[in-house]
Amino acid sequence: MDESSSQAYEDEIQALEEEIRQLTEEYEDIRQESTFFSDEAILKAIKSLEGETQGETKGHESLSSLKAELESLERDLSFLTAFTGFHFTSHSKKTLERTKSRTVQKHRVSGKCHSLPFQVEFQLLEMPNNEKVSAVVSDLSIVMESIEDSNMSKFVSSTEERGDLLTFFRSISAYAEWFEHRKRTFLHFK
């Protein structure tokens, strides 16, 4: 066996070992999430879901009514995308810790606001408090391509330090809308 085929086999073995490691982590996450709920809660949720499913099939008399509802939801989504300027392209969530008193999840959201691409990563700490759940954002990291404006880079840095996700989404929406206007204006004068 020559050196190149041996290296190819070793690379393939490493790739398979990495895939096994990732699948094991995913399995552990799913197992942790399923053990968080009691058997009674799971059975109650299944019965509730079965009841809802039966009610939904009775409520939707035909396939055409389902298609009409889907089209309505797509129109609503299209309206919200046009209204806010946000188009989310991906979201991933990984549970880092789950206990009865708290849950820590890592989220990654990617998308565009008007024409500005962004990626936001953060950890969300959720703690049940009586009947409410309080949530705290930490480890906020914002990546935006082509930030040419120094004021915007300062804003992104300060938002990351404070962990203020809501302010970021509110501000990026207004900034991106005016960014589009400025870009069209400059193109007009060129």
From TrEMBL:
InterPro entries: CENP-P. Residues 6-83 form a coiled coil. The keyword Coiled coil applies. It comes from the Eukaryota. GO terms for cellular component: chromosome, centromeric region; nucleus. Keywords: Coiled coil. This is CENPP protein. It comes from Leiothrix lutea.
